[in-house]
Amino acid sequence: MYRLSPTAIPKSYDLEIKPNLDDFTFEGTVSITLQVPTPTSVIELNAKDLTVTSASVRGGDGNEQVLQVAHDNEHEILTLQASTVIDAGTTVVDIAFSGELKDDLAGFYRSSYQDASGETRYIATTQFESTDARKAFPCFDEPDLKATFKIHLVVPRHLEAISNYPVSLVEEVSPTEKRITFEETMPISTYLVAFIVGPFRSPKVETTTSGVPVRVLSIEGSHELSEFAYDVALHAVKFFEDWFEIPYPAPKLDLIAIPDFGAGAMENLGAVTFREALLLVDQRLASKAELERVADVICHEIAHMWFGDLATMKWWNGIWLNEAFATYMELVACNAFRPSWKRWDSFGISRLEAMDIDALPSTRPIEYPVMSPSDAEEMFDLLTYEKGASVLKMIQEYLGVDRFRAGVSLYLDRYRLSNAETTDLWSCIEEASGEPMNETMRSWVFQGGHPLITASLENNRIQLSQEPFRYLNRSDDPQGSIGSAWLVPIKVRVDGQEHTVLLQGPTLELEVGGGIEDVYVNADGFGVFRTMYKGELRDKAISGYGQHSVTERFNLISDSWALVLSERDTLKNYISLLRASATERDPNVLRLIYSSISLLNRIADSDQKEAVSSLVRELFSPIILELGTEESEEESEEQALARAIAFEALGVISNDKEIGAKANELFRMDISGLAPIPPNLASATLRVVATQGDDSDFAFMLDRYRNPRDPQDKLRNLYAVTVFRSPTLSLKVAEMCKGEIRIQDAFIVLANLIANPFTGDRVIAYIIDNFAELSARFPEKTRPSIFRTVPLLCTETSAPLASRVEQFFADNPMPSGKRNIAQQLERYRLNLRLRENYGSRLANELS
């Protein structure tokens, strides 16, 4: 068993850690005050990769006895055996231990950076979620075993130390070392503890309207990139205090940029850690997408201070309680921070990625039983975050904001400083709203998949029916974890009038009268289902395209494309819809259209590609003709983003020479220091240059990656070098993933290289041949992410590798990514099936 036996309950920790940044080790002591319910001779804690040098227990009478130590490495449990019975009541366990500061991005680990002179320096930092606090100190590493923490760090005098709460005392312990003691925390779970050691500085301290001090900390040389983070953080704290009607729960808020960080960010109470590129940004040079991403992540992590840190799930099966709500609240907060971003519109793309996975046999319920640490790791996926947030938004739309918010506030107030189950939240929302939320949410949370709603018109009645939606839809395809029936809130708009219904069975009839001109199922676009219109309703939905909202137009195209992929509709019908949407200028919808055409270009046989290029010119050239290739001060942000998508589509798929010349002009101006590429056009420009470019362009981008202006500039150029058509250059970048490129970026780079339609076949063969060496560098958690683009190996040259790819995964199981790999292979089969259906006859389908 992976769960600890309940022989002792932690109440407080007194923890001292001393890292050594020369030999990458640490040593420490921890005193844990325990409540022992009944007399026992055995205490179980969690520990992993630690050496315990001594352990003893002190009872209420002051007597101390040495404990025998045994390790269960498989289950990561440390057993302390007493020679005599430990009495019930309060007792203290004292443990001395040591460990290694590895570079595996987990537990208490080391991260490197280069100082002003180019010399490599090191810091020590933590990443404990979900079950890696046990790699830093022996502890009760389960989320419902909350306790207070008093932390002491012994560090070199020239370095700073940060933890969850403010510093209470600094003592000199030697001419070269100091001991920093932090205030004792409120009760928190072990995964939320943090301590960071390094030359971190903040340019200033800002204070929220409620008096909370806020700092943005980073390594020297990047402080000028913190202003945007301050703006977002100050907004977020005030926004959430007002929305939840509960004060910010910690005495400070530090946002810390870490050079090497496996996740995007981590919501440690009062000491939130980030990838540098997701916190530090130059507002003058960043695109809207980059600023949006930084704001999203900051708002997400600050939302966790309430949803996760203050009120916490009891066990990892309920992690979606934290992550789905933090995702939902990041969108609410960012929408208030920059209303012009129309954040709920742009959420469609990430929501769609989750629905794509959710239509596969290997999907899972939003919540499912978690036994082992690897089970917990697999919960951190698009289904937890994006599908979970989508379900919440659907329920909020159905209930209305006020009733939904009242239920959330009731939940947070009732379970503050404690732990809750998923059903506790639904009970609170049901209590506040008077609606049957427990029954409704069970159908969405405890089964995988989502429904296909079919709409038809019969005798002045709209017939709505539901069935499970599956991409692999043939009779011999597995059903897997896709469920069977949902309680579906549906908004139907008929000639401007909205009808809200709850579909509780297989079918439902809606009386609408005669003479219908316009109809849309899933009005406002936030229902978590696919829609298929039958007969004249399809014609009416398409003919009213221009009157639909952005989210509705996005869903209309997304659903139509999904029906093609699932073999429920023809590609010709989808293309006719694209032509009906020729006046589309919203960047979210255009990005979706470009994505689907990119896949068509990928599956096309070589003699069919001109037909795809022709379609791209038909749909995207008018945008360039209308907007030009130069940004203007008068245009909107949406126009700038629409230009960038059209620019990339024409330059990458159609190899448009005029677009290529303009991209080269912008690129040369940038690298010569004359003028930066307009931010919203920067990524598209680099991709066009790389797609049409040569070795010298590669060299310039590689140099810019090594000597960037800011973190976003670094990543733009790193990702662009994965797009070149030369196998030699692609394999050079793959080799760099063995050393030069940071681990946090290298698995993304390898995934991007696999996605390269010109060299992906060479790269996947390289990875298969070198997987033993790559595995030695990449932490186990990150390895499955290398293969997230395997479904794109469906080109004329890479599709023949399918059997070798399948065999590779059979020979190299990845326990922490078992479900993720299964999902990628199913998507791979789906794309190969699309190629089989259309790859050799696209010219006819697109005519």
Can you walk me through this structure?
The protein has 847 residues and is an alpha+beta fold. The protein folds into five domains: 1-197, tricorn interacting facor f3 domain (Immunoglobulin-like); 204-306, Neutral Protease Domain 2 (Neutral Protease, domain 2); 313-449, Neutral Protease, domain 2 (Orthogonal Bundle); 451-565, Immunoglobulin-like, CATH 2.60.40.1910; 725-839. Strand 13 (167-174) and strand 14 (177-182) form a beta hairpin. It starts with 8 loop residues before the first strand and ends with a helix. The model has no long low-confidence stretch (mean pLDDT 95). The record marks 385 as: Transition state stabilizer. Keywords: Aminopeptidase, Hydrolase, Metal-binding, Metalloprotease, Protease, Zinc.
Write a compact overview of the structure shown.
The chain has 847 residues and is of the alpha+beta class. It folds into five domains: 197 residues, tricorn interacting facor f3 domain (Immunoglobulin-like, Sandwich), CATH 2.60.40.1730; 103 residues, Neutral Protease Domain 2 (Neutral Protease, domain 2, Orthogonal Bundle), CATH 1.10.390; 137 residues, Neutral Protease, domain 2 (Orthogonal Bundle); 115 residues, Immunoglobulin-like; 115 residues. The chain has 27 helices and 30 strands.
What is the CATH topology assignment of the largest domain?
A: Immunoglobulin-like
The geometry reads as: globular
- Mean pLDDT, to the nearest integer, reads 95
**Overall strand count:** 30
Number of helices: 27
Described by strand count, sense and barrel closure, the largest sheet is: 8 strands, mixed
Low-confidence stretches: none
